[in-house]
C-alpha cells in the first residue's frame, strides 16, 4: 500500500522578509520562523503515526524538520535529506551548500545526507534551476522514491511559494501502480485549510488545477 504523505512548506526564512534578501546564500530561519516551527509541532495531529521524515537539503527546510518534528526524532524516526526536493531558481537564497558543509553545519543531528550528491547544487543537467524538464524530472524521481518506501506515514518538508510558511497538507497516491504518481489531497486536509479540491495528472505532464483554489497567492516566494 502506498504511503500517505504530509507535505510541509518550510517556516519563514530571512529571504522571505523582502526580495532584496534573495542575495542571502541558503538563508536560515528567522525568529518568527522558529516560532512557526513550534506552533506546527504543537498543532500537527499525526506525530505518533509518522515513521519517516524527508527533507530538502536547504538550511530552512532542515531547520524546520528538526524543530517541528522533534517528537519523531526523539523516538528514532529516520530523517533523510533528498536533493530532488531542493528549491527552484538560481538565486543565492535558492542554492544549497556543498554536502560536506551541510554535514558540518548539522553535525550531531540525525539527518542522513547520504543521498545528497556532490553536484546537487550545481544548477546543471538534472539539477538545472530553470529548466521545466529538469524540475519535472526531479519531482518525478522524488515521488517514485517516496512511493516505493515501506513506511506508511511520511512527512516531506520542502518548498512552495503558494503555501503559507509552515503550512502542511496531506496527500495520498490515487493508484497502487508504482509508475502512476497521481496524488490527491485528503478531504480532512482540504477542509482544514478551507480549500477546494485539486487533482493532478501524472508529473510527466503539467499539474492541472480543476477548481479555483483558495491558496493565498500573496505569500512571499521560495
Q: How much strand?
A: 5-15%
Q: Indicate the structural class.
A: alpha/beta
Low-confidence runs? 199-219
- As a whole number of angstroms, the C-alpha radius of gyration is 16 Å
The N- and C-terminal alpha carbons lie at a distance of 32 Å
Main sheet: strand order: 4-3-2-5-1-6-7
Summarize the structure.
The chain has helices at 31-43, 59-68, 70-74, 99-105, 132-147, 187-192; strands spanning 4-9, 52-55, 79-81, 111-112, 153-158, 168-173, 183-185. It has 222 residues and is an alpha/beta fold. Strands 4-3-2-5-1-6-7 form a seven-stranded mixed sheet.
Characterize the structure shown.
This protein has 222 residues and is α/β, with parallel strands linked by helices. 26% of the residues lie in helices and 14% in strands. The protein has a seven-stranded mixed β-sheet. Helix 1 packs across helix 2. The longest helix is centred in the middle third of the chain and has 16 residues.
Give the helix/strand layout:
Blueprint: E1 4-9, H1 31-43, E2 52-55, H2 59-68, H3 70-74, E3 79-81, H4 99-105, E4 111-112, H5 132-147, E5 153-158, E6 168-173, E7 183-185, H6 187-192
Parallel strand pairs: 1-5, 2-3, 2-5, 3-4
Antiparallel strand pairs: 1-6, 6-7
Amino acid at each position: 500500500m502506498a504511503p500517505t504523505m504530509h507535505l510541509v512548506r518550510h517556516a519563514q526564512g530571512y529571504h522571505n522578509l523582502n526580495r532584496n534578501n534573495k542575495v542571502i546564500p541558503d538563508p536560515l530561519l528567522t525568529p518568527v520562523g522558529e516560532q512557526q516551527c513550534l506552533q506546527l509541532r504543537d498543532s500537527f495531529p499525526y506525530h505518533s503515526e509518522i515513521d519517516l521524515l524527508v527533507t530538502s537539503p536547504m538550511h530552512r527546510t532542515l531547520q524546520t524538520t528538526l524543530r517541528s518534528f522533534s517528537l519523531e526524532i526523539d523516538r528514532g524516526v529516520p530523517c533523510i535529506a533528498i536533493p530532488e526536493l531542493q528549491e527552484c531558481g538560481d538565486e543565492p537564497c535558492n542554492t544549497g551548500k556543498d554536502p560536506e558543509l551541510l554535514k558540518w553545519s548539522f553535525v550531531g543531528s540525525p539527518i542522513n545526507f547520504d543521498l545528497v550528491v556532490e553536484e546537487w547544487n550545481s544548477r546543471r543537467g538534472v539539477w538545472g534551476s530553470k529548466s521545466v524538464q529538469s524540475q519535472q524530472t526531479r519531482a518525478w524521481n522524488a515521488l517514485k522514491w517516496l512511493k516505493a518506501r515501506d513506511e506508511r506515514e511520511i512527512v516531506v518538508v520542502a518548498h512552495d511559494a503558494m503555501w503559507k510558511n509552515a503550512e502542511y497538507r496531506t496527500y495520498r497516491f490515487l493508484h497502487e501502480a508504482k509508475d502512476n504518481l497521481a496524488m490527491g489531497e485528503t478531504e480532512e486536509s482540504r477542509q482544514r485549510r478551507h480549500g477546494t479540491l485539486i487533482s493532478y495528472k501524472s508529473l510527466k505532464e503539467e499539474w492541472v488545477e480543476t477548481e479555483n483554489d483558495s491558496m493565498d497567492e500573496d505569500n512571499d516566494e521560495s
